[in-house]
Amino acid sequence: MSHDALLVFELTILVLAIFLGFEVISKVPTLLHTPLMSGTNAIHGIVLVGAMIVLALPDKDTFEWVVGFLGVVLGSANVVGGFVVTDRMLEMFKKREPPKDPGGSTE
Amino acid sequence: MSTNLANLLYLIPIVAFILALRFLSNPAHARRGNQIGAVGMVVAIVVTWIKAGTTSWWAIVIAMAIGGGFGAVAARRVKMTAMPQMVALFNGVGGGAAALIALAELHRILPDPGRPKIDIALAIALSALIGAISFAGSMVAFAKLQELIRGRPITYPGQKVGNLALLAVCVALSVTLVSGVQDEWLLWAVVGGGALFGVLFVLPIGGADMPVVISLLNAFTGLAVAVGGFELENNVLIVAGMLVGASGTLLTLLMGRAMNRSITNVLFGAFGQVSAGAAEAAASDGGTVRSASAEDVAVMLAYAQKVVFVPGYGLAVAQAQHDVRQLADLLEAKGVEVSYAIHPVAGRMPGHMNVLLAEANVPYPQLKEMDEANPEFTRTDVALIVGANDVVNPDARNNQGSPIYGMPILNVDQANAVVVLKRSMNPGFAGIENPLFYNPKTVMLFGDAKDSITHLIADVKSL
Predict the structure, then answer these.
(1) Interface predicted TM-score of the whole assembly (ipTM), two decimals
(2) Alpha carbon of B145 to those of B82, B207, B335: distances in Å?
(3) Could you tell me the pTM of the whole model?
(4) Could you confirm whether B413 is annotated as catalytic?
(5) Which terminus of chain A has fewer Cβ atoms in its 10 Å neighbourhood, N or C?
(6) Catalytic-labelled residue, pool B209, B296, B371, B390
(7) Domains of chain B from N-terminus onward
């Protein structure tokens, strides 16, 4: 694909992603604002993939070495920390079924 | 692995991330959503690993071990109360990584004859700038929440103009770079300027507003990552980054709405400055504060028909959720009707109180959201406020001059009696005086929330 065609394609998916991003969380309850923030935080840890690509480039000079290495360190911290923190938060939400309320539902 | 195959396989993490967001907005599936997201992330990493080849594989492994190890340990060890600053920290490092990628990319393409393509240069400048703002801003937010620096807004004259000028300089430098001036130092200046702007932008914002700021910076990082995807011509970065950019922006707006504040007000209002005038006004009201002993309060509680607990950040700080639950159980055993009134932004993050009380296994039907709780205060005997302040401040209803005027609050002052557990008479995190404390119906029980509740438990038991 030529560079321009690729750019147009990339812009297309970017715009679609904007609308999708708005759409998927449009009805989130206040209760979940914090875990959702943390969950999206983990997802942008995908930046790790970019840093890996930089660090895996052949013929790196010292600068690219250092920067790529730091990038992977930061990106991995984002990924692991993000998902673990979110999981710990959401762990608290289980067992919401009240033992003393037979008619209660969680919805 | 060919680029086409890699892009095809990248559809797996893309779908996983979309499902993760979808599931995360529903309490029943939220945890599974996060797990789906994590699986998607692993797939993305494996595909990249295979595609990028094994050049420097050991460096990648070492870097991942360092970063991942730090992330895992920090996230596991931290107390539930410190979660907000952890989100800020992990958000910041993500932004930092995006800025680093931009620096590396420019460095790689610059020696080429002819200037870099304009869209690539633009992407590099943007992700460097936004990533740097997000990194530095998140670190300040982390430091504020961790109380390494003052939570109160830090202001100085000419702040807004100065910040705006700084941002304009950064943009001008970026434009110079994009227009074809080949100099790496320009990008360094953009990164440095962006980082400085991030610091100056977050410093004046009060600690109580940090969640909204972190959410905004989270969206920034997402945007920086998406733009980084253009540099590297990588779909999964574009889609995942922009999903976060868009959903993070919406989430920021929703959080602002829950506090009944506009985002511009949050970001530029320097909310929570203690204005000398307001402090004097409160003092000159001549109101007196009544303080009570734990025994007195225990009697009030044990002989009440209906007690409503109002938890706030003090509960989180003192880690008193289990003790509160114990006290509530004890009162229930004595026939008192107990419930919890949860303000949507009590604590430092929306949903903070729900998380803590769920940890203590408080029965779900006892947790009342604000709209459900407010009509009940008129028939409540005792409203027991555990470390909450601004969310029960009647000034939000009555005093047009108050910085929180218009914010929906829990109307605890309509209860027959109000008991406030509080460490001292210092104003709350937002730094605003609270006339509730001077209300004749109110008694104060000073001390750490956990100690106070422990005393109350002992005294209620001995009744």
Answers:
(1) 0.88
(2) 8, 7, 40
(3) 0.77
(4) no
(5) C
(6) B390
(7) 78-268 (no CATH), 289-462 (3.40.50.1220)
